[in-house]
Amino acid sequence: MAANTTNCLKAFLVFLIVHLPFLVLSRCLEHKNPQSFNTLLSLEGLSKGQTDKNLPYLRQYLKRFGYLNYKETTLNGNYFDEVLESAVKLYQRNYHLKVTGKLDFDTVKKAANPRCGFPDIGLRFKSINNGDHTNNGDDDPDFLFIKNSSLYKFFDGNPKWPAEKTHLTYTFISAVHPIPQEDLSSASSQAFAEWTRNSKFTFAEVREGAVSDLRLGFFVGDHGDGHPFDGPLNVLAHAFAPTYGRLHLDGAEAWSLSPPPPGQIDIVWVTMHEIGHLLGLAHSSDPNAVMFAQVTPGVARRALTPDDIAGIQALYATP
């Protein structure tokens, strides 16, 4: 009896060591009243030379997703300057919008869409203030865009799993449980299966607490990785490039395992997208691709596209 009690106590302590930091970080540091992407809709119609109290939020948004650097984010506050116009043009180009530099309806509507928290890779920018006047042959000298005949992209430096590492294990660790664990397991299994069908990788779920290559789970607010979640229908999830192996879903979202009704998010689609990041793919410029940064509420997407497949095969085509 004493031995059984000791073993149970040890198991409980292991559980606390593994889970408690995530539970504390996620629940105690949750953001209060996070600002919604819908705030951007109030900026419709603005252009260079105008002012608005919400322009600093637009600057932070564009910095967060790869269109402004830190120095440019802190310039001119509420004023719509030349630097901000250049960043807006770059955003419009990347999302196949009319490139005007103005915050027209299509631009603010696009920016307000729920999306992955990872920045849009494959972009670079120049500061109007640092004298960088590099000419890449583009008709518009105010921005640079890294052109590629394909729309898929890789992370800087092309990180990927070692050539011999083709079987990856995964487990779950969550701070909150917005859906039953069996639904998360089912969604993940479907998402991993789609990547197995179209790449060299195989995947297997292992028991909770076991050593694994990948760890998936739900978190809310500031959960300790430097990328806090921000409430429903903003950033939906994020994952990290190889070989860190962490995939986090926002526990504040209304997730659906079935084809989602309006306002709910297809968890299979988002998980499939984030697995692409775990394998080394960045965001695609193809709006039909699973690796496109934005997700449409109320819509299900369960299959990789030719762009996604070409991307993963190209990344691992050479050692």
UniProtKB/TrEMBL annotation:
Please tell me the species this chain comes from.
Answer: Ziziphus jujuba (Chinese jujube)
Which family, according to UniProt?
Belongs to the peptidase M10A family. Matrix metalloproteinases (MMPs) subfamily.
Name the SUPFAM superfamilies for this protein.
Metalloproteases ('zincins'), catalytic domain, PGBD-like
Checking CDD domains in the record gives: ZnMc_MMP (cd04278)
Name the cofactor(s) required for activity, per the record: Zn(2+)
Q: Kindly give the InterPro entries that the UniProt entry links to this protein.
A: M10A_MMP, MetalloPept_cat_dom_sf, Pept_M10_metallopeptidase, Pept_M10A, Pept_M10A_Zn_BS, Peptidase_Metallo, Peptidoglycan-bd-like, PGBD-like_sf
PROSITE patterns associated with the record: CYSTEINE_SWITCH (PS00546)
Would you tell me the protein name for this molecule? Metalloendoproteinase 3-MMP
Q: Which domain of life is it from?
A: Eukaryota
Which residues does UniProt assign to the signal peptide?
1-26
Q: Gene3D superfamilies under this entry?
A: Collagenase (Catalytic Domain) (3.40.390.10)
- Identify the residues that the record assigns to the Peptidase metallopeptidase domain, covering every copy: 157-318
